[in-house]
Structure formats: C-alpha cells, structure tokens
Write a structure and sequence with these properties.
This protein is mainly alpha-helical. Helices cover about 60% and strands about 10% of the residues. The protein is globular and about 40 Å long.
C-alpha cells in the first residue's frame, strides 16, 4: 500500500472513531445503530438494472453531504434521532473508505474513485 493510500485510510479511520464517539455521547440506542449500519448498502440493488444505474444508486447513498447535513440539522434542532441517523450513515461511509471502498464508477462495481477493489 502506498503511503498516500495509508494516509487516506487513516483519515477515514479517524472520522469513523470521531463519529462513533459522537454517537455514543448522543445517548441513542445501540440497537438503532445495529439496525441501520448496513442500510446504505441496499443501494447495491441498483446494480440489478446495470452498472450505470447501480453506480448512481450506490453513490447517492455513499457521499457525505446528506448525512452531514442530517446530523448537523439534528444537532441544531435538538433532534437526537436525526443526528443519530446522520452519524450512523457517516460511520458507514467512513468505514467503507477506511477499507478502501470508494464511490463507484459506471464501468463496474469493482471500479471506484479510490481504485479497483478486489483482485
């Protein structure tokens, strides 16, 4: 693994830890966490309609903008459920990036903005 790849993965690992700490401090049930942590991966069903649709569906649920805004809105509006869902979503994305799974390219599931996954 190249040093820059390691640095990127370490950054995402730090985001993962920070979001988990914030989730723990939110006081929301860990059962909700267990229930929702893999929910963004349901977007992979888009690949049943082909690689282009699959990439759009997957990427729509694996970019940080929406969960960040949701978590921030939950915090500002004192809505712990919205904040918790946003944090769970952020954790999911951060773990994916830590493991080297990036946003998908329309050429196929294995092709990501971080490089090809798998062998």
């Amino acid at each position: 693994m190249k040093p820059v790849d390691l640095a990127i993965r370490l950054e995402w690992a730090a985001v993962t830890v920070a979001a988990i700490v914030l989730y723990a401090l939110s006081g929301v049930s860990w059962w909700l966490f267990a229930l929702l942590i893999l929910t963004p991966d349901l977007s992979m069903l888009g690949y049943l309609a082909g690689p282009r649709v699959g990439a759009v569906a997957y990427n729509a649920l694996h970019i940080l903008v929406i969960p960040l805004l949701l978590a921030l809105a939950g915090y500002v509006l004192a809505n712990s459920m919205a904040m918790a869902i946003g944090l769970i979503w952020i954790i999911h994305i951060a773990v994916d990036r830590t493991l080297g799974y990036g946003l998908k390219l329309s050429s196929g599931f294995q092709d990501t903005h971080l490089g090809r996954i798998g062998r």
